[in-house]
Automatic annotation (TrEMBL):
Source organism, top-level taxon: Bacteria
Name of the protein: Tc1-like transposase DDE domain-containing protein
Pfam families named in the record: DDE_3 (PF13358)
Gene3D superfamilies: Ribonuclease H-like superfamily/Ribonuclease H
InterPro entries: RNaseH-like_sf (IPR012337), RNaseH_sf (IPR036397), Tc1-like_DDE_dom (IPR038717)
Gene Ontology molecular function, alphabetical: nucleic acid binding
Coiled coil regions, renumbered to chain: none
Protein source organism: Brunnivagina elsteri CCALA 953
Domain Tc1-like transposase DDE: 20-110
Length: 148
């Protein structure tokens, strides 16, 4: 099961909402366009900006043109920067809660456990998500960089 998820946060980081689009094939440019359509269909009265990594299917002309048509701004993370990608934090959280030290009798049970956990995240796991999925990063004041 592959899933494309979107995480929405307010400026102060106090509110987190997960918007989910799930499929059982590969994620490609058409799947990204479906996610953009789903976000645009929420009827939000605020500008929408989507932060993406540098996968080719996200940077392609189809996705960029469709985002422009929907009025969605696309922001791309620097290459090789998973620490900046909030979706990576969500996946780590889901894996910890659903996969570590757990046995599933069959693939259907495994798939259901992940789907149920993600679907309940907006309500049951709200406090954990608010602390995990914020835009605050640790900074170091007195850093000494040595060049070799």
């Amino acid at each position: 099961m592959l899933s494309s998820s979107s995480i929405s946060t307010e400026k102060n980081g106090s509110s987190v909402e997960i918007v989910i689009l799930t499929n059982e094939t590969y994620i490609n440019s058409e799947t990204v366009c479906q996610m953009l359509f789903k976000l645009a269909s929420l009827g939000l009265n605020i500008p929408i900006a989507v932060v993406l990594d540098n996968a080719r299917y996200q940077r392609c002309r189809l996705v960029q043109d469709y985002a422009k048509e929907l009025g969605i701004q696309l922001c791309f993370l620097p290459s090789y920067s998973p620490q900046l990608n909030l979706i990576e934090r969500l996946w780590r959280f889901v894996k910890k809660e659903c996969l570590y030290s757990k046995y599933y009798e069959n693939f259907s049970d495994f798939k259901s456990a992940i789907s149920n956990y993600i679907n309940s995240a907006n309500t049951d796991k709200k406090e954990k998500l608010n602390s995990l999925l914020n835009l605050k990063f640790q900074s170091f004041n007195k850093v000494q960089i040595l060049t070799v």
